Amino acid sequence: MHRFRTQGWYSGKLTSQHAVRIEIVVTPSEGPQSKSQFNNQNSPPTLESADGYWKGHFQAMASPCDIFMEVDDQSLANKLLQIASGEAWRIEQKFSRYREDNIVHQLNNSNGQPVKVDDEVSHLLDFAQQCWELSEGMFDITSGVLRRVWKFNGGSDIPEQAAIEAILPLVGWQHVNWSRPFFTLPEGMEIDFGGIGKEYAVDRTLLLLQQMTKEGLLVNFGGDIHANSRTKSAKHWSVGIENPNQPDAAAGVLKIRKGALATSGDARRFLQHDGKRYGHVLNPKTGWPIEHAPRSVTVAANTCTEAGVLATFALLQGADAEAFLKSQDVRYWLNH
Amino acid sequence: MQLKKQNKITTTLTAATCTLLGINAADTVAEEGDWDFDSAILYYSEVDRVSAIEPVITAKREFGDEKSLNLKLVIDVLTGASANGATPSDQPQTFTRPSGKGSYTESADETPLDDTFKDTRVAFSTQWDQPLNSDYKTSLGANFSTEYDYLSLSLNGSLTRDFNKRNTSVSAGLSVANDTISPEGDLPIGFSSMAIDRGQAGFDSEFNATRDGGDDTKTTVDLIFGVTQVISSQTVMQLSYSISDSSGYLTDPFKIVSVVGNDGRPVDYRYEKRPDSRNKQSIYWQTKHHFTQDVLDISYRLFWDDWDITSHTIDLRYRWMFDSKRYLEPHFRYYSQSEADFYHRFLREGETLPEYASADYRLGELNGITLGLKYGMKLANEQEMSLRLEYYLQSGDNPEGDAPGILSDMELFPDVEAIIVQFSYNF
User: Fold this and answer.
1) Contact: A16, B5; criterion CB under 8 Å
2) String of b and e for A81-106 (b: at least 16 CB within 10 Å)?
3) Edge-to-edge strands, sheet with A115-116
4) Could you say which of A131, A203, A256 has the minimum Cβ distance to residue B31?
5) What is the pLDDT of residue B390?
6) Which of B7, B14, B21, B66 to probe the A interface (max A CBs under 10 A)?
C-alpha cells in the first residue's frame, strides 16, 4: 500500500499577509518505481530566500522535498537544510526496499533465520505491529509480495485466483516472530516500510531541525507535511489542497499553526477488468484489491506518521472510508 | 470492513506514534473552525455573609489568519447578607429594607448586615480579534450584563502594533460603559434619614419622602495603554497605564451611615452620598518567567483616584509542574488601600454634615491577603481540568481615632474572611 507519488511545490505567491502557501497536488505516478530511480546520485540541496524565510529544496524518496525555514541567518538555513537532506537520505538508504545494502534487504533475505536489529528498526517494527493490531490485520507490512501477481499499470490483466492463493501464505504479520531485538521472517516473506517510511522521515526531520532552532519550520516531502509554529511571525501556515481530478474546483486552503498532513492513495494506479475498476490497495487477507475505496485520502493530525496511518487505514475501509474518518474526529479530504 | 467503524483508535495510535518518534503527546492541530470551550464553576463564600455561585462558560473559535471570536456567559447567584454601613450598638437595631417593604433587625453588639442581599446576574460578552496587516491587530467587543435592578452595556476596542519582530507590542484600548440602576423602592435621597416603621400611620409617606427617582445612570470611559516586551525566550514583561472616568450615580443606594451621639449610640441613619464623578488611574506591571518547566508569574498594581484612595496589589503565582501533565500552583496576593476622603465610619450628632459620606467598608482603609492553591491536570484529547482553593482575609483599620461611648468597645472594622473554590474544565 501507499505506493504512489505526490508532488509538492511552492506556489511562489504570497498573500497580503505573507503567508507561506504550500500547494499539494496528488499527481499520477509513472507506475511502479524502478530500482534505477534510487541509484541516481543525489544532487546537492538548493537554498533560496523568500520574504522572511528560506526555502530549501532537494530530492529524496523519489519525491521533491521542501524545507521552509523562518530564520534570518543564511548560514543557519543552510545548516538546517544539510541536516534535513542528510536525514531524508539516511532514512531512504536504510529503509528502501530497492536497495541491497540495507537492513530491509538483509531481513528479506534472511531465509528464516533470526536477525538482530538496531533500536530504530525495533521502534519501527513495534509500530508496524501496533498498526497491524489496531487495524485488525488489515495494515500489514508483509503484504508487499502480492505485487508479484498484481500489476497496477492501468492494464486489464487480473491474476488467476490460484496465483493469488499461492502467494497468500507468504502474507501475514502473524507468521513473523518479533522478539526485540531479534526479528525472524519466514522464508519467502518480505517486509516493506514503504507505508510509513516517508511520513516517519518527515517527522524525524522536523524533530531534528527543532533541536537547532525555535523558529517556524515546515517539512514537505512530496506532499507529506509536518510544520511547527511560526514563532517569529506568529502566522499560520497555509496549505492548499487540490483535487487533481477536478482542477477547476476551488482548492481548499488549510491553515495550520502546527501539525501534519499526509496523503495515501494513488488515483492512477488501478486495473480495469470486465468494466470493473480495481484500485491498488490490497486486502492482505484475501489478496484482492479493496473495493470502493476512495482514490486518495488526505488526513490532518499531530504528526505526519499518524496522519499517514489514518489515511491508509481509511483506504483499507473501502466504501466505509469516510465513516471511519468521521469516527476518528480528524480533518480529512477524500478524492473519489 | 474489518475495522469497527465506531472504534476510535486515534488515542492508541497517537501514543504509538509518540513512542516511535520519542516525543511527548503533542498538542493537537490548531485548525480553523475548532471551537474551544472553557467551563468553570466558582463558589465564593464570606463567613456569615455573602455567598456566590458563579458558573462561567467561554467558547473560542479560530477562523484562521489569527481571526478569532470569543463568547462568554456568566451567571452569578448571590445570596446572604452584606454590611449596610451602620455601626453596631449595645441595643438591637431595626432598619427599613431598601424596598421600603418591611424591616430587619440586627442584634446587639453585631455589625448590622442587610440580609436582603439576593440577586442573579447574567452577563454575556463577545470579542472579535483580527489582524489588520502584519503589524496591526485589532479587537472589538461588547458586553451586556443584567440583574434584577441593574443593567450594564459596554463597548470596547483596542489596537495593537507589533515592532521588533513581534518582540515588542504597543497597544491602546478604549471602553465605554453605560450602567442603569433601578432598585425596587426607588433610589434614596442622599443624606435623607431612614424612615423606620414603628407602626406609625404615616410611614409610607415618610419613606416616600426619602425617595428620589426610580432609576439613574452611570457612564464610564476607560483608556488603557500598554507595552508588552519579550525579554528572552523565557521571560515576557508587560507594563500598562489606565485611566478611567466615571460620572453619574456612583452612590450605593443600599448603604447607610450611622449618626451617633456622644454615648456612641445611633440617633439617626442617613443614606450615604458619594460624589457624582470619579477619576481612577493605575499602573500595572507583570512579568512571566518560564523555567524549564515551571512558570513564575509576578505582578504589581498601583492605583489612585480623585477620591483619595491609593492602593497597592502584589500578586505572585508559581506553577510547579510535576510532569508535562500535572501542576500545583500556589498563589499569594496582598492588597492594601487607603480610605476615600469622604469615608466616615459614622457621623457625629450635632456636627455639620460633610458634602459626601459613606461608611462602605470597601472605601475604608483595609488590607487583604489571599492564599491559594490550584491543582491542574491535562487529560486525554487535549482536555484540561483544574481545582482552585483560596482563602481571603481582609482586615480594616481604625483611622478615626477615639470612638465615642459604647463604640470604643465595639468591633467597628470586623475582619472579612472568604473561601473561594473553583473547578474548571476545558474541552
Assistant:
1) no
2) bebbbebbbebbebbbbbbeebbbee
3) A115-116, A182-184, A177-179
4) A256
5) 95
6) B21
Q: Which pLDDT value is given to residue B123?
A: 93
The beta strand positions in chain A, using DSSP E, are 7-10, 21-25, 46-50, 53-60, 63-69, 115-116, 177-179, 182-184, 217-221, 224-227, 237-242, 252-256, 259-265, 270-273, 276-279, 296-301, 331-335
pLDDT at B329: 95
Q: Which of B5, B64, B233 is the closest to A323 by Cβ?
A: B5
How many Å apart are CA B312 and CA B303, to the nearest integer?
6
Amino acid A292 reads: H
Put simply, the answer to whether A327 touches B27 (Cβ < 8 Å) is: no
Q: Is A317 on the interface with B (CB under 8 A)?
A: yes
- For chain A, give the longest Cα–Cα distance: 62
Nearby residues of A5 by Cβ (< 8 Å), 6 or more positions away: A27, A29, A30, A33, A62, A63, A222, A266
Shortest distance, CA A129 to any CA of chain B (angstroms): 10
Please name the residue that has the C-alpha cell 482575609: B393
Using alpha carbons, list the distances in angstroms from residue A119 to A203, A223, B16.
17, 28, 15
Instruction: Return mean pLDDT, chain B.
Output: 88
Residue B19 and residue A127: Cβ atoms within 8 Å? yes
> What residue in B sits closest to A319 (Cα-Cα)?
B1
Instruction: Kindly report the backbone phi and psi dihedral angles of residue A79, in degrees, each rounded to the nearest multiple of 5, phi listed first.
Output: -65, -45
Q: Confirm or reject CATH 2.40.160.40 for domain B36-426, answering yes or no.
A: yes
Question: A51: which chain B residues are within 8 Å (Cβ-Cβ)?
Answer: none
- The beta-carbon contacts of B321-324 under 8 Å, at least 24 apart in sequence, are B321/B293, B321/B294, B321/B295, B324/B24, B324/B293, B324/B378
- Taking phi first (over 0 means left), then psi (-120 to 50 degrees means alpha), and beta for anything else, what does residue B171 get? beta
**What is the pLDDT, as a whole number, of residue A158?**
85
Query: What residue ranges in B132-276 does DSSP mark as E strands?
Result: 136-147, 150-163, 168-181, 216-230, 235-248, 256-260, 266-271
Residue A242's pLDDT band (cuts 50, 70, 90):
low
Distance from CA of A244 to the nearest CA of B (A): 24
Which residue did the predictor score with more confidence, B44 or B34?
Answer: B44
Among B5, B166, B233, whose Cβ lies nearest the Cβ of A320? B5
**Model confidence over B222-232: pLDDT tens digits?**
999 999 888 87
- CB-CB under 8 Å, B5 with A235: no
Instruction: Based on DSSP, count helices (H) and strands (E) in chain B, helices before strands.
Output: 2, 21
> In a mutagenesis test of the B interface, which of A306, A325, A329 is the best target, namely the one with the most B β-carbons within 10 Å?
A306
Question: Is this complex's ipTM strictly greater than 0.85?
Answer: no
Q: Residue A18 pLDDT > 60, yes or no?
A: no
pLDDT digits (tens, 9 = 90+) for A71-85: 888 999 999 999 999
Across the range B14-23, mean pLDDT stands at 83
Residue among B267, B419, B33 at smallest CA distance from A236: B33
Asked whether the beta carbons of A96 and A35 are under 8 A apart, the reply is no
Closest to B179 (Cα-Cα) out of B278, B250, B84, B255: B250
Shortest Cα distance from A36 to chain B (angstroms)?
30
Rounded Cα distance between B44 and B419, Å, is 6
pLDDT at A35: 38
DSSP B307-334: TS-EEEEEEEEEEEESSSSEEEEEEEEE
Instruction: Report the C-alpha gap between B357 and B272 in whole angstroms.
Output: 6
CA closest to B15 among chain A residues? A306
Q: What is the pLDDT of residues B247-293, one digit of tens each?
A: 999 999 999 999 999 999 999 999 999 999 999 999 999 998 888 77
Whether A292 and chain B come into contact, CB under 8 Å, resolves to no
Residue A290: C-alpha distances to residues A172, A220, A311, A314, B80 (Å): 16, 28, 14, 11, 69
